[in-house]
Model the fold of this input.
Amino acid sequence: MKMFELIKDHIKDIKKIVFVTGAGISQESGIPTFRGKDGLWRNYDAMKLATIGAFYDNPKLVWEWYNERRKNIFGALPNLGHKAIAELEKFADVVVLTQNIDGLHQKAGSSEVLELHGSIIKIKCSVCNFKDEIMTEFSEIPPLCKCGNILRPDVVWFGESLPQDIWQKAIVFASQCDLMIIAGTSLVVSPANTLPIYAKQNNAVLIEINPENTEMSSEMDLVIRNTSATTLPKFVSMFKEN
Ligand code: BJW
Ligand code: ZN
Done:
């Protein structure tokens, strides 16, 4: 396991681990990523559907996309990558800063998960303050609020700001960690893609797990070009051995 030499000698000093995760970590649970050929849904570009403008132009279309994703996600199980992250809590303080809305980190048993882009089980009214959690598909789309306006997924679309309390906490965790592991994200979407910079300012070790190159691969201390379900269990083994 040559690739781990960088941290193996310092493993006793690693007290705080922050994970930054994206769609790639759930790919091995059967959930498609956004970018690349995976990110096409009925020939629509997922990136063009994940905007507030697309929702107001065609709420029915955007809801059809979410309805299909709800069905897929609610049937999905955490994979060995999610499970390894949960198990690492036995060895260090672990915080997961995820861009995913699928809830699989929580299902795997992680206790500190900050959902930067919201959650697919949550819905909210596009006009009033109504919010709810719904675990089924919607038969009538777009679903309507009691106030008569359209309900929407309680997720963060392009042009919208992240939930500020969660984002502020994420910055604090990122700024205080010893090790940041960035897994399954292309790091093209801001502001989530700035989190490694906060960690670097604290001299944290930065490790990327991704089969492909990303925007920030050259900034990493170590890049592991493999999938997360293959790689993350090896971190657990390494902590166990030390
Ligand atoms: C594996 C693997 C395996 C595969 N193992 N790895 C110009 C105009 C307007 C806005 C902007 C602009 N320029 C910049 C902006 C800001 C914008 C932005 O960043 N845009 C860029 C795309 C250019 N950001 C925002 O708008 C954000 N808000 C904001 O900045 O507020 C202030 C503001 C307001 C107004 C104007 C400007 C600023 C909000 C961003 C919200 C993103 N929302 C989505 C949808 C969430 C809900 C949903 O899921 O439906 O979030 S879009 C989508 O991208 C989703 C993801 O969380 C996010 C990130 O994607 P992720 O997770 O990285 O996935 P992929 O597919 O990109 O990558 C997968 C990776 O996994 C790949 O690298 C694979 O190689 C790898 N992989 N298999 C490990 N098995
Ligand atoms: Zn309402």
About this structure: Residues 125, 127-128, 130, 145, 147, 149 surround zinc ion (ligand 2) (CB under 6 Å). Residues 22 and 78 are 14 Å apart (CA to CA). The radius of gyration is 18 Å. The longest helix spans residues 59-74.
